[in-house]
Amino acid sequence: MMDKSTENPDEDRVSVSSNDRTPANVTKMGRMESFRNSVRRAVEKSPLSPVAKGLKVTAEAKSDGNQKGSPHPQTPSSPSPSAGTPVTSPLKNMGYEDTPARKSSSLPRSMTDPNMLKFFRGDKNYSSLPFFHKKKKEKRRKDSNQEELAAVSEGILEENNVKTEEEEEEEVDGEEIEETYALAELPHTPLSVMQINKLIENEVLEEAHLNLLALRQEFQQEQEQCGEDSMELAKKEKDLSLLYGELRNKINSLVRDSNSLPNRNKELLVYVSRIIQEEEKRAKDPGGLPGSWMEAWREAVLEGVQAKLKSVHLEQKEKNASWLAVHLGLLGKAIVEDLESVRRHLRWSYPPSFRVFSTYVDSYHKAVGQHLKTVEQQVMELKDLYALLDWIINRYKSERIMGSVSLQPDMKDESTDLQLEENFLKRLKNKYCCRVKADVRSTLDRIITFENEDVWRERRSPDKDDDFLDSPFHMDIWTKVKSFATNSRKIDAELEQKAVCSCLEELKDFPGRFEAEFRRHCSALKPQPLWTEYQITYINSFTSLLQHMEGYRDSCPDQVEKFGREVNGLMDWLIGGLQDHYKEDVKPYLRRMMTRKWLTVDEDFEQLYRRTELLSQHCALMRPPHVQKFARELHYYVVKEYIGQLMKNNYSCKNRKHEKAAGKIRRQWDKLVELFENMKSEHDWLHHVGDELSDIIGQKNKADIKNHLKPLVEHYPDFRYFSISHSTV
Length: 729
Prior knowledge:
mainly alpha; 5 domains; 29 helices; 4 strands; DNA N-glycosylase activity; FPG_cat; zinc ion binding; SNARE binding
């Protein structure tokens, strides 16, 4: 019969059978289509595909398939292999290994190692250890990578990408290894100390530990037989101690690096966990190391976490003003990424009792606290202290780090609190408050400097706000204090209270410092109107500043009270300066009142009135409540001095001059009353005294005078009956 391949050289046939149970499928196709189908079959036979298990493509399978599945034997097109030659996959022709030729059921490495066979011989315990399945997964992954390369060339990468995602999902959704395990049979004759040490160095931990247990068993048996005095026994005990020390050091090293190199250590960590479990069980037996292996594992985890934090980039503050903010951002990112890796990958190498995720979380709480203590020593600026406090108190617990969605739900039952050194947070807050005080003091210094250079030295008139003389520095100070309060509140209420109190403590000395500088630079202006304007300006500004600070009385009562006393002291000095200046100014005009000249000339009263009116106009630029206080005191002073001149007997009226004097007093008094009413003086009880005195002075006989004296003395007890009667006679 004519060979089919010679009839149609553009077609070939591929026969596939699986363990002689599946009939061969024979199909005619073009050479390119045959190539593509071969690639697809290679993908289907990937270990990732459940149907690929046990598949084997060999020349025998092809031959059986031709005999059983087709009445007409077919051979591939030219160049065709000779009879009995295994079919070659197109992948192999392209330079890749033929995927179907692999034995998917080959033993894992540790079981094919001659040294391992003797420790697991005659026992199927090894099949229950999860790391053997993990090795199969690694082998499948390598096969899949080669198949993916071929798939790219044929445009079917999407299918393999789906498989890769499924594989990753399988890895993320893994399960912890079982808590219980069966220890393999110990070797009858352990390896030498040098050999065991070499195994430890080469990280063949399972074999090294079994030999170490066998050596320890020999030691225990000899100890029971020979007692404690044997030199050989002492030497063997020393060897055991050295080997166990090396094993623990190696385990600690692996654990420290486990999250940095998860793929490398993944399988080794399974052996590590079993070794730790076994040594914890044998802790009371002779020949072991003192101290808990589990505790040593936790310390190794902590050391690994510390190394991770130390590796986070920390720029020199001289080179970057935002060095701390950048470092804290990178620190949070590293913590989240590390814990994500623990949650998704690392914990599946340990049994549940290790509480791997919780251990790493606790280690980060402790290690971060230690790390921040080191960083804090470099933090000096206010903004950096704030950033550090905010990171510790708020951001570390937030969804940015420990509350990250990617760590849920495992973080649900975990603490999110940092393990800080005792009083560390208190020290940090105090340091922050000291910087707050320094910043406030710097602001106050700049305010005094500005007033001197831009106002006093230039003799510039003050600005107005709502028709009141005003210097805006009180708003600058209030804004500064309010910003500290607001920002500190974002961290916690305690820091807000401390920060505000620190501001007020620094403010307490400001009124006194301001007064000293004002005296030094502005005393020469007295008695110019500009000096009066400055006085009123600072009365207004410090009044507003005190009102702003009164809002913090509930949280800082002592500090507000002390600051209030200092401000009131400054107010008394400023208002007293205005009063003293006015008194000195009107003194000569008051002295010439109620004299012979006064009765005929109004010049002295007009000077008194003009100066009082000018001061009244200035008072209109003064804010409450000091304007009322100033008007009251000024009103009382003018009335007292005006009436006082009448009481001094400087001039005696004869004949009809009594009536003339009474009329003049009434007219002048009415002008003064109107003036003080405009000043909003609250001493309205003084308004009638002038009228009553005018009535008395206008009387001609003593009887009428005495009739008017009694109500006057009752209304104004400061007047003595004898003085008034003598003055009016």
